[in-house]
Design goal:
binds acetoacetyl-coenzyme A, 15 helices, 15 strands, three-stranded mixed β-sheet, alpha+beta
């Protein structure tokens, strides 16, 4: 059975940046350290007035097709994952395919197109769909294009406003991939939850604190489910563990939970016992609440041990570098975390081929998914080709007043004309509206 996985990725960031500690915090009369130390964020990416989920997705996909020298005939499906869709019938993938057909010879008339919805986990679900399609032998030698694209905007004044972001990740799923092979094993933690939703509205209704608890609970279930079909994981099994990253502070909590879980019944737990005791076992407690409290007390001590801090610095921290600079990209967020980790390996000249990653995806509402990936020989070349650092460097730094204007410009319920802040060049732009109120796009040379 040949390997199936991610052959290439490209990232496209919204072209504006909002400085959280220096621009946003003072305007909100808040301590900048809430952003840098608490949430773990520095800047967020914003779409300029001519950008949206289609332009960002199409721009990422065009870069990917150009770099991999692909023609439309090489692509057998285009799946878009988004929670920012503006049409309940016509999928975003048709708009993106239309854009790409403007600049490539040929068409995608024989590619299966769709749109996946399950909050932020749908990017990973789209990769699963592509994997299954290839494994089933229905792909006719072609690859799948998976595009995770979002404008993660919250209503002004909502606590989630601090964690906004906008960007797209395009991924090519193929046989014999250059970047990572996906494990056949997966674990799920899924339940009907009301923590974050958009019932036919643009900006989400969020119970922020609860959403964090639900994230951790579903992630724990997914880890246990994965172990039931894969193996009992240990902390050193993985070079990096990229999690869904709504903001790095959330991953700090997920990382600690993962470490506690994987050191249980290992030598690491025995060694740590001298400092902080052994982990509480459920059987030792009369009720669940007392057990949970004991676990919390154990984790409180665990998070300050040298062993944990060293593991966190090596395995988790490198996954957060891009996220700190772009905020939440919803469906793209976990894929940004993977790219960040691989970029770190490249920059530190680490030999990674054959090593494993554990991917922790999550979507509100709520579902977590865990799978493993094996880094392939071609990873270095693929990651060297990323231009995310230059793109981030080129973003236009908006003032708070400009932020308010651009937020209004993207608000579907407002009719506010705002001049663009940057000049488009070599990219797709939103260029107006058609006779059936559809969005129209152009390619600007
Ligand atoms: N110095 C250092 N740290 C500070 C600080 C300061 N001056 N001020 C605050 N902090 C810390 C806080 O202690 C807190 O950290 P802990 O959680 O570790 O205690 C952190 O900074 C955030 O501070 P608050 O809790 O006071 O922030 P808040 O009440 O404004 O809201 C939030 C935080 C609930 C995450 C909010 O941003 C939100 O609603 N975000 C959207 C929902 C979200 O992202 N949920 C994540 C899980 S759901 C998911 O993952 C799906 C998704 O993509 C949306």
């Amino acid at each position: 059975m040949s390997a199936v996985g991610i052959d290439a990725i490209e990232i496209w960031t919204g072209k504006l940046e909002l400085d959280l500690p220096n621009t946003f915090a003072p305007a909100k009369n808040e301590d900048p350290e809430k952003y840098t130390k608490g949430l773990g964020l520095q800047t967020s990416s914003f779409p300029d007035t001519y950008e949206d989920i289609v332009t960002m997705g199409a721009n990422a996909a065009k870069r990917l097709m150009d770099r991999k020298d692909l023609m439309p005939d090489d692509i057998g499906r285009i799946d878009v994952a988004t929670e920012s869709a503006f049409d309940n019938s016509k999928p975003v993938s048709t708009y993106i395919a239309g854009c790409l057909e403007r600049v490539h010879d040929g068409d995608f008339h024989h590619a299966n197109k769709g749109e996946r919805k399950f909050a932020c986990v749908s990017g990973t679900q789209s990769i699963d769909d592509a994997y299954n399609w290839i494994r089933a032998g229905r792909h006719r030698g072609r690859s799948a294009l998976v595009i995770a694209t979002d404008t993660a905007l919250y209503a002004r004044g909502d606590p989630g406003e601090a964690t906004q972001g906008a960007g797209a990740v395009a991924m090519l799923i193929s046989e014999d991939p250059s970047l990572v092979e996906l494990s056949n094993e997966q674990g799920y933690g899924s339940a009907d939850e009301t923590d974050f939703l958009k019932p036919n509205q643009q900006f989400p209704s969020v119970d922020g604190k609860r959403s964090m608890q639900v994230y951790l609970a579903r992630m724990r279930e997914a880890v246990e489910d994965f172990e039931s079909v894969a193996w009992d994981m240990q902390p050193e099994d993985f070079a990096y563990i990229p999690f869904h990253t709504p903001f790095p502070g959330m991953v700090r909590k997920a990382g600690l939970l993962g470490y506690r879980h994987t050191i249980r019944d290992t030598e690491v737990e025995d060694e740590l016992a001298e400092q902080i005791g052994r982990q509480p076992r459920e059987a030792e407690y009369d009720d669940w609440e007392a057990y949970e409290e004991a676990i919390r007390a154990y984790m409180d001590q665990l998070k300050d041990t040298d062993e944990y801090l060293d593991w966190y610095d090596r395995v988790i921290e490198p996954t957060l570098d891009i996220s700190r600079r772009v905020g939440n990209w919803y469906t793209g967020s976990v894929h940004v975390a993977r790219a960040s980790a691989l970029k770190h390996a490249l920059e530190t000249d680490r030999s990674l081929a054959g090593e494993k990653l554990l991917i922790g995806s999550y979507g509100s509402g709520a579902q977590a998914e865990i799978h493993a990936e094996t880094v392939q020989d071609g990873w270095r070349e693929e990651i060297e080709a990323l231009s995310i650092d230059e793109q981030l460097e080129r973003r236009y730094d908006i003032s708070y007043e400009e932020y308010e204007k651009v937020h209004d410009a993207h608000n579907h319920d407002m009719d506010r004309e705002v001049e663009e802040f940057t000049q488009p060049e070599g990219e797709f732009v939103h260029a107006g509206w058609g006779r059936m109120n559809e969005r129209k796009y152009e390619y600007v040379e």
